[in-house]
Amino acid sequence: MNKEKRDMLFNQAKDWVLEAGRNIRHKIKDPLHIDTKSNANDLVTAMDKETEEFFADHIKGKYPDHSILSEEGFGDDLNSLEGVVWIIDPIDGTMNFVHQKKNFAISLAIYEDGIGEIGLIYDVMSDVLYQAKHGEGAYKNDIPLTPLDKDKKFEEVVFGLNHFWLCENRLVGEKYMQQFVKDVRGTRTYGSAALEFAFVAEGVLDGYLSMNLAPWDVAAGMVIVKETGGVTTNIDGNQLSLLDKDSVLTVNPSIQERLLDSYIKVGRK
Ligand code: IPD
Ligand code: CA
Ligand code: CA
Ligand code: CA
C-alpha cells in the first residue's frame, strides 16, 4: 500500500474508532442487554453489535470494494485476505465491559493482501489510543513507543497469560507452565487480548500467551507489536493465518526462544 493511501485510511479509521469510543462512553451507564454465545461465560452485548454495525455501515458506505472480518456478524465471510480487509473487534474484553465497565478496547486493523498496514487499539474508558502504520513506528496517543529491550533478562520478565495455562489443558502440560510462572518475575491477566498486545508493544509486558484467539483479537496488535520489534506466532512458532483461530504468542524476541524451547515445546501435548 502506498503511503498516501495508508495515511488516508489511517485518518479515516482513527476518526471512526474515536467516534465509536465516544458513543460507548456516553452510554456506559445505560442498562446492559447481554446474550451468551458458545457458553454461559461467552458474553455479547447490544453495544458490541451496535459498535460493529457502526463500523460496517461506514466502511461499506465509503469503501464498497473493501472487505470486513469481524466478530459479531456484520462483516463478510472471507476465505482469503486478498484486497483491503478491515479486521475489527468492536469490544475486546466484553467480560470486562460487562463486569467492570472499563479495561476493554476497540481493535481495528487494516490489511492489504495479507500485509498489516494499520493497527489501532483504543482503550475506550482511559481514552488511550495505541496506533501504528506499517514501517512508521508505533504510538501511544501521540507519543512514540520505544523499541523493545533487546537484552531482556528472563528473571525480570513480566508476562501476560490467563490462569487456564496453570490448569490441565489440551496444549501444554500444566507443570511446565507452572515452572514458567515461577521462573519469571511476575505474571498478569488483563482480560483483553488487544490491550495485552498493546502492553507488549509498550514493553510493560514482555509477552502474552493465549490458547485460542480469533483474527480480530490479534490483527491490530500484530501490526503495533511489530513496529516496536516484537514477534507474533502460534505456540509452535508458526505464522498465524488470520483466517482461523489459533494459539498465540506475542513476545519480545529476546525471550522467545527460551520460552518456546524450555517450557512450551517440552510440555507440548
Ligand atoms: C476475548 C478477550 C479475552 C481473551 C478471549 C477473547 P472478546 O475477546 O480478548 O481476553 O482471553 O479469548 O475471546 O470476546 O471479549 O472480544
Ligand atoms: Ca466475544
Ligand atoms: Ca476479542
Ligand atoms: Ca469482542
From TrEMBL:
UniProt entry keywords in alphabetical sequence: Hydrolase, Magnesium, Metal-binding
Keyword Magnesium found: yes
Metal-binding keyword on record: yes
Catalytic activity, as annotated: a myo-inositol phosphate + H2O = myo-inositol + phosphate
E.C. number(s) listed in UniProt: 3.1.3.25
Pfam (any one): Inositol_P
InterPro entries: Inositol_monoP_metal-BS (IPR020583), Inositol_monophosphatase-like (IPR000760), Inositol_monophosphatase_CS (IPR020550)
PROSITE patterns referenced in this protein's UniProt entry, alphabetically: IMP_1, IMP_2
Major enzyme class: hydrolase
PANTHER family: INOSITOL MONOPHOSPHATASE, INOSITOL-1-MONOPHOSPHATASE-RELATED
Name of the featured protein: inositol-phosphate phosphatase
